[in-house]
Amino acid sequence: MALFPALLFIKMARGTVDKEYEFKKGNVDGAVKFYAENKTLAVILYFKDDELTGYSYEDKQGNLVPAIPLLYGTGKLTAYFKNGNKSAVMQFNESLAEGERILYYSNGKEYINSNRINGDDDGIKKTYYPSGKIMREENFLHGNLHGTSKYYAENGNLINELNFYNSDLHGVCKYYEAGKLTETLIYYYDMLEARK
Asked: Are the CB atoms for 149 and 129 separated by under 8 Å?
């Protein structure tokens, strides 16, 4: 277990930093920063020993608003970009995301819309391009990909349609180029069984 503070960076699909976490002694401790495109700050969550204590975001001058407390890590969070557009809407229960979770691009369009149960994605999670067009539509069960997930190019063409069982590829998976089906693979618990 690390005894010194550490930072963890989580990257978006397009290679930019999505989140930064601060850790002490293996626990989230300090600021967890969520970013939109171009590393635009969306919201900061404050933790002490893995417990959510509050949140903040930038005001129109680019200064952080005073920390807004979340007593016992419970409550609704609504944050804004410094341009005044909404950046995040999340609900927490005892430091875990619970219920609808919406993150936005700085232009005001949705980036991610999902449902969380005990901190895990559960149900349909939609991710959008900055233009507002759908990028991914994924099904989750207890934080694992489960069921059919679809992935799209920004022009709306389907890239692939994958089936998962507990995050393993399972069943018929279809792959497309320019919107036309090019390959069909059949998986059995993450093992390729057949090509069509």
From this structure: no
| 10-residue mean pLDDT series, the chain (196 residues) | 43 62 89 90 96 97 97 97 96 96 95 95 96 96 97 96 97 95 96 94
User: Tokens 């792959």 label which residue?
Assistant: 175
Q: How would you classify the pairing of strands 41-48 and 27-28? A: unpaired
Q: What is the pTM of this model?
A: 0.87
d(CA 10, CA 174): 28
* Torsion of Cα atoms, 137 then 41 then 108 then 16, to 10°: -40
Helix (H, G, I), strand (E, B), or coil: what is residue 71? helix
Nearest alpha-carbon partner for 138 in 172, 176, 103, 164: 164
3-state SS, residue 97:
strand
